[in-house]
């Protein structure tokens, strides 16, 4: 039982890290492919900021799609 709990926690962390890394990669790719030409854009004109924003968006999406802890069910009231 304890092993299953540890595996599910590790899986949640792994998926969260993976989605965050994919978001960061997407942010960098957005900077390199589409980004701002003259550098005047505050987010897409800097590769570090663009990568951080992408990672934050990936982390937020992980919070939506990665299942969390299951809540304990309360016994029915009589």
Description:
Helix 1 (2-33) packs antiparallel against helix 2 (47-65). With 78 residues, the chain is an all-alpha fold. It contains two helices and no strands.
Which percent range fits the helix content? 55-70%
Flag low-confidence runs. none
Beta strand %: under 5%
Mean of pLDDT: 84
Q: For the CA atoms, what is the radius of gyration?
A: 19 Å
Number of helices: 2
N-to-C series of helices and strands: HH
Q: Span from first to last CA? A: 31 Å
Shape: elongated
How many strand units?
0
Q: Give a quick account of the main beta sheet: strands, pairing sense, barrel closure.
A: none
Give me the secondary-structure topology.
Blueprint: H1 2-33, H2 47-65
Output the keywords:
elongated, mainly alpha, single chain
Please sum up the structure shown.
This protein is 65% helix and 0% strand. It is built from 2 helices and no strands.
């Amino acid at each position: 039982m304890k092993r299953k709990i540890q595996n599910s926690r590790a899986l949640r962390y792994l998926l969260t890290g993976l989605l965050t890394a994919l978001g960061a990669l997407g942010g960098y790719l957005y900077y390199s492919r589409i980004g701002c030409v003259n550098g005047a854009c505050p987010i897409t004109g800097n590769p570090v900021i663009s990568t951080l924003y992408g990672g934050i968006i990936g982390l937020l999406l992980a919070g939506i799609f990665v299942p969390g802890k299951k809540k304990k069910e309360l016994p029915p009231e009589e």
